User: Which sequence fits this backbone?
């Protein structure tokens, strides 16, 4: 065996810092998170965040915390320099928001950073500058009490990393999400967030969690929030949950905190799910904010590089405490004091689900079961509402409208006797396809029908939704919306696509904004397709909605000639044909 000498080298400090930055600084939101944690650990009760171009050009965080003297300022950009750890055992009892000594050093390795600070009660301030990991400079400087950090031109010296940043609106939405979560956990601290000079979030210091959540998510939701807490064996679980008639298709409005640290946690998530079982419909998710306070020795925050997850020493106990607190919150509402039964043992729902499983292995995830209401299709029969005509006809839809046996079962499915078998139709999926094809055709031809609202609707939006509004507004305009910002945390809707005129316009706006806020952000072309699918789904007749024979016939008439009527826009089957041969085989007649 031959050994080659001289191949092992000690990496230069600036390269080490850039490697460390890859773990600490993933995107602009990572920088904001680190700086906010430092501000909170410094005892700030007011934090101002200014962002330019999604954080690419500038991230400024200014706080009124304790500030730093000259000796501390000189060490801020030194790798592994920290005021939050002094011995090894401190790693297992972390009581601060942050503790990593490489954060500022790593940020300084991939950006141009200026830090100014003045301790409370002193007259002189100090400044440290660093650029791309070079040796930092230090000088006296004018500064308000507290600390200000300016991060400019993030990743300017790592072009590969800068190239992979998303659009400014997308990056800003990540920043808004981080600020929102941290602000939700610290009601006693005032936060202000601005992007390109426009205020995105203003959350003044308040006394209660409910007040803070109202300032972030709007007064409409806050009115229906329920609160409770449980405390035992050194663990306190405080919960603020929305009444069960507020539900979502996703879990974005489930925010969990342990010792005021925002994070993801399966234990808490399972407790929320279990506590709401029977109160919310299948495939819908409750809105819940859970705050767990426990001794730092009873929870490990070091299991995730970004401290986004924790590990409880007694997960079963944490689960039971959170579940008990939510149960107490639900019982606090006069409308919810009875035992949860509306969804857990709904026989009709079970039957509909069984039929759906027969038509498809798994029924559409997230599809709502709205309360039965009568629906009038007549407004859809005017020109332009029958969908674009096509030559091809799907095999499973009858070529001629039935003049005999047609029926609706479980207010969800249409059954038609065909000459050689039976046709089963999912009324929601078929109507969704009809509306999608109409919306798409009008979108492509730029002839979308827009309905001016008699009274403009004001919609409260979250900071994340507000952050992407400018980017998605042109697409929404082409779809028929006329929307404009309306002060801070709100927008006003003047017009909406005619196809959704009979739906909840506010819910539609939130839904199409959420289409852009998925984990995998679409380009604008993909986004338009998502938004069209969402609008069609919102406007379509629902499962569980009774239809007359005339309405069923109208639905079939509108579907005639559609090339892709066999599936809904999401790819789920809308129509199934069972031949007599198949029926005889299933009944063992063959």
Assistant:
């Amino acid at each position: 065996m031959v050994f080659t000498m001289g191949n092992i080298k000690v990496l230069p400090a600036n390269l080490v810092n850039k490697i460390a930055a890859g773990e600490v600084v993933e995107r602009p939101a990572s920088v904001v998170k680190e700086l906010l944690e430092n501000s909170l650990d410094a005892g700030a009760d007011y934090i101002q965040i200014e962002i330019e171009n999604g954080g690419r050009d500038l991230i400024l965080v200014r706080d009124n915390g304790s500030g730093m003297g000259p000796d501390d300022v000189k060490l801020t950009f030194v790798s592994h320099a920290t005021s939050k750890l002094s011995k090894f055992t401190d790693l297992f009892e972390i009581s601060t928001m942050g503790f990593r000594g490489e954060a500022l050093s790593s940020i300084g390795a991939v950006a141009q950073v200026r830090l100014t600070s003045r301790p409370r009660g002193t007259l002189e301030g100090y400044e440290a500058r660093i650029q791309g990991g070079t040796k930092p400079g230090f000088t006296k400087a004018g500064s308000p009490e507290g600390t200000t950090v300016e991060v400019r031109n993030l990743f300017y010296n790592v072009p590969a990393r800068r190239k992979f940043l998303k659009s400014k609106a997308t990056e800003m939405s990540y920043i808004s999400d981080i600020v929102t979560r941290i602000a939700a956990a610290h009601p006693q601290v005032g936060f202000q967030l601005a992007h390109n000079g426009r205020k995105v979030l203003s959350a003044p210091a308040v006394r209660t969690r409910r007040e803070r959540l109202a300032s972030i998510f709007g007064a409409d939701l806050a009115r229906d929030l329920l609160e409770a807490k449980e405390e035992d064996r050194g663990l306190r679980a405080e919960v603020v949950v929305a009444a069960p008639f507020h539900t979502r298709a996703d879990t974005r409005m489930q925010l969990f905190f342990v010792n005021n640290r925002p994070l993801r946690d399966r234990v808490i998530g399972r407790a929320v799910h279990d506590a709401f079982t029977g109160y919310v419909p299948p495939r819908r998710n409750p809105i819940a904010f859970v705050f767990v306070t426990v001794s730092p020795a009873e929870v490990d925050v070091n299991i995730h590089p970004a401290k986004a997850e924790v590990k409880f020493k007694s997960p079963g106990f944490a689960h039971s405490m959170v579940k008990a607190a939510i149960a107490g919150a639900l019982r606090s509402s006069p409308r919810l004091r009875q035992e949860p039964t509306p969804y857990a043992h709904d026989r009709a729902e079970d039957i509909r689900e069984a039929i759906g499983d027969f038509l498809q292995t798994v029924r559409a995830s997230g599809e709502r079961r709205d309360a039965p209401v009568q629906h009038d299709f007549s407004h859809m029969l005017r020109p332009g509402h029958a969908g674009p005509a096509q030559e091809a006809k799907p095999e499973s839809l009858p070529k001629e409208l039935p003049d005999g046996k047609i029926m609706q079962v479980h207010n969800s499915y249409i059954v038609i006797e065909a000459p050689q078998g039976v046709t089963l139709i999912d009324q929601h999926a078929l109507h969704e396809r009809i509306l999608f094809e109409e919306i798409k055709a009008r979108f492509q031809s730029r002839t979308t029908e827009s309905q001016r609202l008699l009274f403009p609707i004001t919609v409260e939006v979250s900071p994340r939704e507000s952050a992407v509004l400018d980017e998605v507004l042109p697409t929404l305009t082409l779809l028929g919306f006329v929307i404009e910002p309306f002060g801070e945390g709100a927008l006003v809707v003047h017009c909406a696509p005619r196809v959704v005129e009979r739906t909840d316009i506010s819910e539609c706006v939130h839904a199409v904004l959420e289409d852009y806020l998925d984990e995998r952000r679409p380009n604008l072309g993909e986004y338009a397709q998502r938004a069209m699918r969402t609008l069609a789904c919102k406007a379509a007749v629902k499962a569980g909605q009774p239809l007359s024979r005339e309405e069923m016939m109208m639905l079939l008439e509108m579907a005639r000639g559609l090339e892709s009527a066999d599936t809904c826009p999401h790819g789920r089957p809308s129509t199934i044909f069972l031949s007599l041969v198949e029926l005889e085989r299933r009944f063992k007649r063959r």
